[in-house]
Automatic annotation (TrEMBL), chain A:
Stored SUPFAM superfamilies: C-terminal effector domain of the bipartite response regulators, CheY-like
Residues covered by the Response regulatory domain: 14-145
Keyword Phosphoprotein: yes
The name this protein goes by in its record: Response regulator transcription factor
HTH luxR-type domain sequence ranges: 173-238
A Pfam family assignment: GerE
InterPro entries, alphabetized: CheY-like_superfamily (IPR011006), NreC/VraR/RcsB-like_REC (IPR058245), Sig_transdc_resp-reg_C-effctor (IPR016032), Sig_transdc_resp-reg_receiver (IPR001789), Tscrpt_reg_LuxR_C (IPR000792), WalR-like (IPR039420)
UniProtKB keywords: DNA-binding, Phosphoprotein
From TrEMBL, chain B:
The Phage shock protein PspC N-terminal domain, residue ranges: 1-47
Native species: Kineosporia mesophila
Keyword entries, A-Z: Kinase, Membrane, Transferase, Transmembrane, Transmembrane helix, Two-component regulatory system
Transmembrane stretches, start-end: 22-45, 156-176, 182-200, 221-239, 251-270
PANTHER family per record: NITRATE/NITRITE SENSOR PROTEIN NARX-RELATED, OXYGEN SENSOR HISTIDINE KINASE NREB
Domain Histidine kinase/HSP90-like ATPase: residue ranges: 378-466
Protein name per UniProt: Signal transduction histidine kinase
Keyword Transferase: yes
Length: 240, 474
């Protein structure tokens, strides 16, 4: 897992787009064009399948990879998970200016819970659906680049569902892996209601940085929790 | 007696069952034609359950008007296998074979209507027909069930009674050693055959070849038992009055040969099953593919055609694309929220409706789920109103709907990013927010809160605690 310690984001953030549909890749390029022209982002490469993605990511060592969940090639399903697993060496070291960590933001049309969970548990720093607007996507890329997590409302909903919303389920200690703390639950609920981080911060009278910390903590729990409901819940959804 | 042949014949010839049975027994004792005839009838005449099923299907297909005893025709000459005739000749046989005490003419006229076509009203005819079909199906199902139930008893008692018969025959004909020597092994063979063949009976054939495991353990065991008994009988028949050592050796040799045959044919058998299995899987795949193709045709291709035709009308194209996306998404990643008795499904349905009507984009997140009850319906109605309200004011931005089913209640949020409005400024006569949302929630022990900030949009929160429901119901 990449270190959550934030380092000031060095602009432009170098981005690789991985998706098997060329039309979609050029669409993302167009969405990000403004940010690129403003010097916030720099798109350094593209890839269309698992093999290509692993090679391109290893070659360019980008800051952020926009990763399609369903990729052709490779042996692991979903394909995005294999890219993450094979790029683990790039994401698992200390983040320094000389040797920046590559972070993955999953981007998918699929709402299928098991796909979302598969890429998150394989190390993706966030998950957004492809219907996301251009400015939102830029914000998400920058958030991920700074080491924080990005949760779509739907992913927040998944988390609440998977960790249970029962009153007795609140974690007593913040770093308890299998439960959400009361604050984390509040943050997740606001995100699920469609609040941006800034709005969540305003609503809860905390700083945006604190919101990001909470979200990152939830991401960590999602990645590391052995909570059996998580697997059971994902398996339940797969059947349907 | 064994398989209900006598009963079938009796029904067919309208003779007492007992007389037919006695006839069979007498014919058997006079050199065996009775047994041969019996076996022949058993093998060739379809049993009533399957025949009735076939006939019911045929009648349903051709929609031939009929009334009254719908399956009796099928029972002419039919034999309801396995009738436990040997145990209690009068009770189960009658139940199986004569489920409907209709007059005999009904047997002949079944298939050509007697009453329903006379009815002047077409509707009455149709209703009668539908009822008759339903009755026929029910009857067939009942027969299948009964035959399943009675099969076990038939197996057991066929074997036991035949062995008992052997003993009786042996005892009564001790003087005629040769005769007994033939009869006993023959009866043993026959009983083994009955046990074995019973497993292949019509009612079970589908199960044998069904994909849900080709047979049950009990069936296999009984089949093996039948084979063993048959082999034993044949050996006894061939080696009459031979000394026990020879019989033992022969039995051993037989087992060895059978084992050898099994070894030789087992791979072939396994391959046969595998082929059958893969064929079945292929058929399933084919059906699935056809299903997908049909779905894509009905939905996606139709929508694409519509979009091409209306390409000038941007909002309409967006609406079509959105509706199609929702449909396809639900089909591909159906999250189990298609059970209309659950909240999540109702929320999905009402937001989909709002998307269609208002052309808005609505993102729904549901956490938890619970069945819809009367109070939940009131929340859903208020939610529908809130969503419609948001869709009218969202100004093209997407609307967020969040519904959480908590252990102690339901909470729902509808958020839009429209210009926002001041609730106090809404005129009294505007029913929308005040009456349909706030009033409705409060009447049902819940609450609604509208929070609107100019420029940031509006959020409506609906809360329906459970505690109220208990009081209200009492």
């Amino acid at each position: 897992m990449s270190k959550d310690v934030a380092r000031p984001v060095k602009l432009p953030v170098r981005v690789v787009i991985v998706d098997d549909h060329r039309v979609f890749r050029s669409g993302v390029r167009a969405e990000l064009a403004t940010a690129v022209s403003e010097g916030k982002l720099d798109i350094v490469g593209e890839a269309g399948d698992v093999e290509e993605a692993v090679a391109v990511v290893a070659k360019h060592r980008p800051d952020v990879v926009l990763l399609d969940v369903h990729l052709p090639g490779g042996t692991v399903r979903p394909g995005g998970r294999e890219v993450l697993q094979r790029s683990a060496s790039l994401t698992n070291h200390a983040d320094t200016a000389d040797d920046p960590v590559t972070r993955f933001l999953a981007l998918s049309v699929s709402d299928a819970a098991e796909d979302v969970i598969a890429v998150i548990r394989a190390g993706a720093r966030g998950y957004v659906t492809k219907s996301i607007s251009g400015p939102e996507l830029v914000a998400a890329v920058l958030t991920v680049a700074s080491g924080d997590a990005v949760f779509s409302p739907r992913l927040a909903g998944f988390v609440l569902d998977a960790f249970g919303t029962g009153a007795g389920e609140v974690a007593q200690v913040d770093d308890e892996l299998d439960r959400l703390s009361a604050r984390e639950r509040e943050v997740m609920r606001l995100i699920a209601r469609g609040y941006a981080y800034k709005e969540v911060a305003k609503e809860l009278f905390i700083s945006v940085k604190t919101v990001e910390t909470h979200v990152s903590a939830v991401l960590r729990k999602l990645q590391l929790s052995s909570r059996h409901e998580l697997t059971r819940w994902a398996a339940d959804r797969r059947l349907l | 007696m064994l398989a209900g042949v006598a009963t079938g014949v009796a029904v067919h010839l309208r003779l007492p069952v007992r007389a037919v049975r006695i006839g069979f027994v007498v014919a058997t004792l006079m050199g065996g034609p009775g047994a041969v005839l019996y076996a022949w009838l058993w093998a060739l005449v379809p049993d009533s359950a399957s025949a009735a099923a076939a006939q019911a299907a045929q009648q349903a297909a051709t929609r031939a008007p009929y009334s009254g005893a719908p399956v009796l025709g099928a029972q002419i000459g039919g034999r309801p296998f396995p009738a436990p005739a040997l145990v209690a000749p009068s009770d189960p046989v009658d139940r199986i074979d004569l489920p409907d005490p209709a007059p005999p003419e009904a047997e002949v006229t079944a298939g050509s209507s007697t009453t329903s076509t006379i009815g002047p009203l077409k509707e009455t005819v149709l209703q009668a027909r539908a009822a008759a079909v339903a009755a026929a199906v029910e009857e067939v199902e009942e027969q299948v069930r009964t035959s399943r139930r009675s099969r076990l008893r038939a197996d057991l008692f066929a074997g036991l009674c035949l062995f008992a018969a052997c003993a009786v025959l042996l005892a009564s004909w001790t003087g005629l050693e040769v005769q007994a020597g033939f009869t006993m092994p023959l009866l043993i063979v026959a009983s083994g055959a009955v046990i074995a063949y019973a497993q292949f009976d019509e009612a079970d054939r589908s199960r044998w070849f069904s994909s849900t495991g080709f047979t049950t353990r009990a069936t296999t065991l009984r089949l093996m038992l039948g084979v063993v008994v048959v082999v034993l009988g044949i050996v006894l028949l061939v080696l009459q009055n031979a000394d026990p050592v020879l019989i033992t050796q022969t039995l051993l040799a037989t087992v060895a040969v059978l084992f050898g045959v099994t070894v030789v044919f087992a791979p072939w058998g396994v391959r046969f099953w595998r082929t059958l299995d893969s064929e079945r899987a292929g058929r399933v795949r084919e059906a699935e593919r056809a299903d997908i193709a049909a779905h894509l045709h009905d939905s996606v291709l139709q929508t694409l055609a519509l979009i091409q035709r209306r390409s000038a009308d941007a909002p309409e194209v967006a609406r079509l694309a959105r509706a199609q996306e929702r449909d396809l998404r639900g089909w591909l990643y159906g999250r189990g929220d298609d059970d209309p008795t659950m909240i999540s499904a109702r929320v999905a349905a009402l937001t989909a409706e709002a998307e269609d009507v208002h052309g808005a984009v609505i993102e729904v997140v549901t956490v938890g789920d619970r069945p819809v009850d009367e109070r939940a319906m009131s929340l859903l109605s208020a939610l529908r109103e809130a969503v419609a309200n948001a869709a009218r004011h969202a100004g093209g931005e997407s609307i967020r709907v969040y519904v959480e089913c908590m252990p102690d209640g339901i909470e729902a949020f509808v958020r839009d990013r429209g210009p926002g409005f001041d609730l106090a400024a809404v005129p009294e006569d505007r029913l929308g927010v005040r009456e349909s949302i706030i009033g409705r929630m409060e009447r049902h022990g819940g609450s609604a809160r509208v929070r609107s900030t100019e420029g940031e949009g509006t959020e409506i929160r609906l809360l329906l605690p459970d505690s109220g429901s208990v009081e209200e119901e009492q």
